[in-house]
Amino acid sequence: MIDVSHKWNSSFKPLILGFIAAVILTIFSYLASSMLLIATLAVIECVVLLVTFLGLGLEAKPRWNLLAFFFMLAVTIILIGGSVWIMNHLNYNMMPMDMQMHKQMKGSL
């Protein structure tokens, strides 16, 4: 955790600042009413946590950390996208037959 080559990382200051920033961003996201604002605050909080707690991008050659990060991001997108896709299809397949017919007729017009 203590790295001599990075001056700002040799204390607990970035950890405390990261924790305070994460708490503030979480509180703002609970108070927000817009989904776009909530998503933006979530992305900002992810970047803050990645930089302050995981130290992503602080080393001289962050290739492996970035590779692991992008792999994790791809797996997360696949899991969330697949879950939404499955729930959408389950919603369609669990509809009563008359609603399915109405939806198909409406789509063909």
What does this structure look like?
- This protein is mainly alpha-helical.
- The protein folds into 2 domains: 1-60; 69-109.
- The protein has 4 helices and no strands.
- The longest helix is centred in the C-terminal third of the chain and has 31 residues, at 63-93.
- The model has no long low-confidence stretch (mean pLDDT 80).
Which percent range describes the beta-strand content? Answer: under 5%
User: What is the assembly state of the chains in this entry?
Assistant: single chain
Domain tally: 2
- The radius of gyration is 22 Å
The SS-based structural class is mainly alpha
Main sheet attributes: strand count, strand direction, barrel closure: none
Helix and strand topology:
Blueprint: H1 13-31, H2 35-52, H3 63-93, H4 97-108
Helix pairs in contact: 1-2
What descriptive keywords fit this protein?
109 residues; mainly alpha; 4 helices; 73% helix; elongated
Produce a short descriptive summary.
The chain is an all-alpha fold. It has helices at residues 13-31, 35-52, 63-93, 97-108.
